[in-house]
């Protein structure tokens, strides 16, 4: 491990920002950058030695490797985090397009998915509850496993702690259906004051158990549970299906429909932990019809 890699390791592992998964991915990403810079002929004595030419070299290297827009966006996020931690934020351009990085494709087909029946019944009860929380409240896998119902239940909403959430962004999700209330009571009865991670087991170890078990019974798309929740909420809030589920796009909506679409997307974005309207296109389908579509 060279000086840069060691310095980045110290910074990344010594910082508690974000969930366990976020910190782990960021650490691995920064270590990869250190190796890539070394391979490109740069010998940085410390993380604070980052300069614009290093950023440009990394971006050009990634483009040459034909990485996807989404991967590039993630790496730029880690690079900006690095620069900010060593007080060199001005070294990395604020906008990706200034580096010739295209925007991530938002909608890539309807990925909404519900798990039930034999596949669900084949899982242990603890894992079933985790998947049901994902569908009922739009939780990520990590959030559903770390979720403590006795602590999160606020009566009319659940409050997710920052340490459970991606990027350390705490949020609330409304309780709007009797089935959500019944599920929370079921989770409390099963877990008491604890989470769905078994006592005495590390989160990361149990996460691997869940991933192996769900894959083994044929569940390939747990993230699709979040998509299903978003689409269910949209239909509940607007009275109509979203574009991803065959609903109208902006051009075909009435003025009132457009207002309802905007309010629903903003509410859903907040409940999913994003807070940005464009992100909802991934879950709900694009607000606007594709160019050339009739």
Give descriptors for this structure.
mainly alpha, 294 residues, two-stranded antiparallel sheet, globular, 53% helix
Explain what this protein looks like in three dimensions.
With 294 residues, this protein is mainly α. Helix content is 53%, strand content 3%. The chain has 13 helices and two strands; from the N terminus they run H-H-H-H-H-H-H-H-E-E-H-H-H-H-H. The protein has a two-stranded antiparallel sheet. Helix 1 packs antiparallel against helix 2 (20-39) and helix 6 (125-137) packs antiparallel against helix 9 (178-191). The protein is globular and about 60 Å long.
Query: Which strand order do you get reading across the main beta sheet?
Result: 1-2
Helix content: 40-55%
Largest sheet: 2 strands, antiparallel
Principal-axes geometry comes out as: globular
């Amino acid at each position: 491990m060279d000086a840069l890699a060691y310095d980045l390791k110290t910074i990344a592992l010594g910082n508690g920002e974000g969930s366990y998964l976020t910190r782990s991915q960021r650490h691995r990403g920064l270590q990869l950058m250190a190796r890539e810079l070394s391979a490109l002929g740069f010998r940085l004595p410390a993380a604070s030695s980052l300069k614009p030419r290093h950023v440009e070299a990394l971006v050009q290297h990634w483009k040459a490797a034909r990485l996807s827009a989404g991967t590039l966006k993630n790496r730029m996020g880690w690079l900006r985090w690095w620069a900010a931690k060593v007080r060199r934020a001005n070294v990395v351009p604020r906008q990706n397009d200034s580096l010739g990085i295209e925007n991530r494709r938002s909608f890539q087909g309807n990925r909404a998915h519900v798990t039930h029946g034999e596949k669900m019944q084949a899982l242990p009860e603890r894992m079933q509850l985790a998947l049901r929380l994902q569908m009922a409240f739009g939780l990520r896998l990590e959030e559903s496993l770390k979720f403590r119902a006795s602590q999160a239940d606020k009566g009319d909403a659940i409050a997710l702690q920052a340490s459970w959430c991606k990027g350390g962004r705490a949020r609330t999700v409304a309780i709007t259906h009797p089935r959500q209330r019944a599920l929370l009571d079921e989770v409390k009865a099963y877990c008491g004051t604890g989470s769905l991670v078994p006592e005495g087991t590390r989160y990361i170890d149990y996460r691997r158990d869940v991933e192996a078990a769900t894959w083994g019974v044929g569940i390939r798309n747990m993230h699709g549970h979040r998509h299903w929740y978003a689409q269910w909420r949209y239909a509940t809030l607007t009275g109509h299906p979203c574009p991803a589920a065959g609903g109208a796009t902006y051009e075909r909506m009435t003025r009132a429909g457009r207002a309802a679409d905007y309010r629903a997307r903003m509410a859903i974005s907040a409940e999913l932990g994003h807070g940005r309207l464009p992100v909802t296109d991934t879950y709900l389908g694009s607000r606007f019809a594709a160019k050339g579509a009739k």
